[in-house]
Design goal:
heterodimer, A: alpha/beta, Rossmann fold, Cytochrome-c3 Hydrogenase, Chain A, domain 2, five-stranded parallel β-sheet, two-stranded antiparallel sheet, 11 strands, B: alpha+beta, Cytochrome-c3 Hydrogenase, chain B, four-stranded antiparallel β-sheet, three-stranded antiparallel β-sheet, 16 helices, about 15% strand, globular
């Protein structure tokens, strides 16, 4: 029965039947989900109309990979709220191009890229552009046109140029350059790798007038992506910070909401990697944790359906969502941040004595935040 | 004679193009091209050696645990602490690795290789394998998510788990955590093979029954669907393999060189690995020695000085873009001067394993490499993994020590040998002044996707494509009208290797192909 929702034409699944009988319950699930996010909260009444419209129109999504490791693709498969299947069926998104999972290859695949008008474009991986060597743009090519390999740079510009609704740079490589942008021993990226927004230019806007939405992470967080996509499909523009990140997910330091925060406040620090498990009740700062440097809602949302996050498993944050990942200040990863951050104005060496006031503030802030961000409310029954 | 260029090859990890010569409906020659370069080995040089596992882990987001673990082995070896890593840490690393193998094999068989045998692509009647909408596909996506939850519980998050660290792992699982992981593995085992969580309840128990059902259904041409008591994944994978053999002749297609390299994976207490290292030379298994690995560069875009010696001693690569005979940016690793295949089949052959004689009976031989036997070995390995994983989970005891304090050596040389789901993986590191001075990686797919070596011998994937049928009328939705060719069998053969191009070309330079033909008749 679920097979009947699609028909494979030329190897591409097309939605043939309006099998999106979105029950009221399903709708509330989705609307409740997106509506609970603060940037969506105000738009609840419009959501119904636009959502139904988006489903009817069969919105098209193109996911293209530059210099990536496909980790963000695998990350997408971990989405649970909703999962990828629900997103496709319930939000009505068609995915005619996604290299890792799509059916067609070769010319068929390239034809799709050439003829499609994406509503949503997701870019995974950084984009090399020509630099001193004169060859760097060819460090990543996809298919051929007129007998010549087509560079990722060309595809990115071409596809972004015709995207109607939203362009998302998913993952740190696409959002900020990531590891391929990292400095080698000569002090530069081996392939002159760039972030998507650098390639498109700061004036770039989609048909709907949106700039590139940056969603860093190594990998990117799949639930956040689907929430942002849902919002975009519903015609809601997420509020972005000055680096193009949705403020909903990138306005607090990981450290602020870390489960180990109380141990930081008490001045209890792991001294080596044998003392990092939660049973030792230590903060990981001195093990190089970059939580105090990194803006992200990791600690609140956690990962893989909200079951865990790096620090809770004893692993110091490596700042994978930081714009400068993997360079300074995120690396060396196991070395504590040189300069004590001023966000609290407290010296960790004396933290245990001076922290009483700050602890109270921290706990209060935490409580408030918990109160306003019930992101994954279970669906209400009718 | 005609030329056919398939670029991009999709449903693999990464960027790959294949150039083929086709004559009288068969491939006569194949060349593989990689189209991505990121320069990982350059990026780790000059940094703290402890950063290498974290950066190099990100060579691949599909096999997202292996490079980290292999790199840790190399830097632990360089510091001389390999034997001091606590047994509990090795156990946790084994468990994380086994779960990754299971997820990776599952996602490959269902989502990457599977659609080529589905009703949607090739009118086989196997609707459960249909892209995205098939019930089996959906169940597999859910199962891999459950396995990723296990990785997140033990690793912080997944992909790119975070807990394996120099000297061990950062967490000490308690009883509750072990239970949460175990419950999820049980759930997947029940779905996959219809059995309970119990090491004495062999994961392969239901294989004969499912095989019998599937062969009967294949003969009648009507697919009844799985019996959950016998295992849904068993049904899907065996029906896919049956279709591969009976409808597509996959046991006679995609024939590789018949030589295999495995480097060993899953640590045993006290040393050695459960899946052994070995070299199968075409007739017998020899002990593996990494000193026998050399990389040729005659047909790769590098200066002659860059290759031709034991990889651990090789100097950094010097690109040479204009070389006449070059056609690939992958190097050509050889073992004792020969090409060799890596992957689940290579591991099982090197271990002398053919569970239930499936490769012998269905594939014609336990040691032949074909489109069928590669996917068959992957399925057999899943069964082996489930049983091993259960045993290791039961060995896990709460609260034990899981790490030693790792100190970066001032200087040292280290080798890490391991296996990714896609095959043998090796890392070499040289440390000087407390920093990484040199780093080399030979990734699994490099072995399989390599170009010709200095003697003009083709790589395993290139080899395997020769004689693969290219029908002139449609057998699948892959049919290319303009060319009058259906590349289904070619794609099935390439995907049977489960190529991972991000791994292969982590260090290579850009593709600067000169030819300009997509489909050309002459």
């Amino acid at each position: 029965m679920e097979d009947s929702a699609f028909e494979i034409k030329d190897g591409i699944p097309f939605i043939t039947k309006p099998n999106f009988r979105i029950s009221r319950r399903e709708f509330i699930k989705i609307a409740g989900l997106v509506g609970a996010s603060t940037f969506l909260g105000l738009y609840k009444s419009e959501v119904i109309k636009v959502f139904a419209q988006a489903a009817k129109e069969g919105k098209k999504l193109v996911w293209i990979q530059g210099q990536s490791d496909s980790g963000c693709t695998i990350s997408l498969l971990q989405a649970e709220h909703p999962d990828i299947y629900d997103a496709v069926i319930q939000l009505g998104v068609q995915i005619p191009f996604q290299q890792t999972i799509m059916v067609p290859s070769g010319e068929q695949a390239i034809n799709t890229l050439e003829t499609i008008t994406p509503d949503i474009l997701i870019v995974e991986g950084s984009i090399p552009v020509n630099g001193p060597g004169g060859w760097e743009a060819h460090a990543c090519t996809i298919g051929e046109r007129n007998g010549k390999p087509v560079t990722m740079e060309e595809w990115a510009k071409e596809l972004a140029g015709k995207t109607t609704t939203a362009v998302v740079a998913f993952g740190s490589c696409s959002a900020f350059g990531g590891i391929p942008h990292g400095k080698d021993f000569t002090g530069k990226s081996p392939t002159n790798a760039k972030a998507l927004h650098e390639v498109l230019g700061s004036d770039y806007r989609t048909g709907a007038g949106l700039p590139v939405i940056n969603m860093p992470g190594c990998p990117g967080h799949p639930d956040w992506l689907l929430i942002v996509l849902a919002a975009a499909l519903l015609g809601i523009i997420p509020k972005l910070d000055d680096r193009g990140r949705p403020v909903e997910f990138f306005s607090n330091k990981i450290h602020d909401n870390c489960a180990r925060r109380g141990w930081y406040d008490k001045g209890s620090f792991a001294k080596d990697l044998t003392e990092t498990d939660m049973i030792h009740e230590n903060c990981l700062w001195k093990m190089g944790c970059k939580g105090p440097e990194t803006l992200s809602a990791c600690a609140e949302y956690k990962w893989n359906g909200g079951i865990n996050v790096c620090m809770n498993a004893g692993a110091p944050c490596i700042g994978c969502m930081h714009p400068d990942f993997p360079d300074n200040p995120t690396s060396p990863f196991y070395v504590e941040i040189e300069k004590i951050p001023t966000f609290l104005g407290i010296d960790t060496n004396t933290a245990g004595k001076a922290m009483v006031g700050a602890t109270a503030v921290g706990i209060a802030a935490h409580a408030v935040r918990r109160g306003v961000t019930k992101h994954y409310k279970p669906p209400e029954e009718e | 004679m005609a030329k056919l260029m398939i670029d991009p090859v999709t449903r693999i990890e990464g960027h790959l193009g294949i150039e083929l010569d086709i004559n009288e409906g068969k491939v006569t020659e194949a060349k593989t091209h990689s189209t991505l370069f990121r320069g990982f080995e350059r990026i780790v040089v000059g940094r703290d050696p402890r950063d290498a596992p974290i950066i190099l882990q990100r060579i691949c987001g599909v096999c997202h645990t292996e490079h980290r673990l292999c790199s840790l082995r190399a830097i632990e070896n360089a510091a001389g602490v390999t034997d001091e890593i606590p047994e509990q840490a090795k156990l946790i690393r084994n468990i994380i690795e086994a779960i990754t193998f299971m997820y990776s094999h599952g996602i490959h068989l269902y989502a990457l290789a599977g659609p080529d045998y589905s009703d949607g692509v090739a009118k086989t009647g196997l609707t459960r394998l249909n892209f995205l909408t098939g019930q089996g596909y959906r169940e597999a996506v859910k199962a891999q998510r459950t396995l990723h939850e296990c990785l997140a519980l033990l690793g912080g998050k997944a992909p790119h788990f975070m807990t394996a660290c120099p000297g061990g792992v950062t967490l000490q699982p308690d009883a509750a955590l072990i239970t949460r992981v175990t419950t999820r593995v049980l759930e997947v085992k029940k779905w996959a093979v219809g059995r309970t969580f119990d090491p004495s309840d062999d994961a392969a128990t239901n294989v004969p029954a499912v095989l019998e059902n599937v062969l009967a259904e294949a003969e009648q041409g009507s697919w009844k669907g799985p019996d959950p008591e016998l295992g849904n994944a068993l049904y899907d994978l065996i029906s896919m393999l049956a279709v591969a053999k009976l409808k597509f002749g996959a046991d006679k297609s995609g024939i590789g060189p018949g030589r295999y390299v495995a480097m060993g994976v899953f640590d045993k207490p006290g040393g050695g690995t459960y899946m052994p290292a070995g070299f199968y030379n075409g007739s017998s298994i020899e002990p593996f020695d990494e000193k026998n690995i050399i990389e040729d560069v005659k047909h790769s875009w590098y200066t002659a000085e860059s290759g031709g010696m034991y990889v651990g001693d090789a100097p950094p690569l010097e690109p040479d873009y204009g070389k006449d005979v070059g056609y690939s940016w992958a190097k050509a690793p050889r073992y004792k001067g020969m090409s060799a295949e890596v992957g689940p089949l290579a591991r099982l052959v090197s271990a002398g394993l053919d569970p239930l004689d499936l490769r012998k009976t269905l594939g014609g031989s336990a040691t032949i490499g074909s489109t069928l036997t590669r996917n068959l070995a992957r399925t057999q390995e899943i069964l082996w993994l489930i049983d091993s994983l259960e045993r290791w989970l039961l060995e896990l005891k709460p609260g034990k020590k899981t790490a030693i304090d790792y100190n970066v050596p001032n200087s040292g040389f280290g080798v890490g040998l391991w296996e990714a789901p896609r095959g043998a993986l090796s890392h070499w590191v040289e440390i000087e002044g407390g920093k990484t001075k040199r780093y080399q990686v030979v990734a699994p797919t490099t072995w399989n996707v390599r170009p010709r070596d200095n003697n003009g011998n083709a790589g395993p994937i290139e080899d395997s494509l020769v004689n693969v049928k290219v029908p002139s009328s449609p057998v699948s939705s892959h049919f290319i009208k303009d060319a009058g060719m259906d590349p289904l069998y070619i794609l099935q053969a390439v995907r049977s290797f489960d190529p991972c191009l991000a791994c292969t070309v982590h260090m290579t330079a850009p593709n600067r192909r000169k030819y300009s033909v997509k489909v050309e008749h002459f």
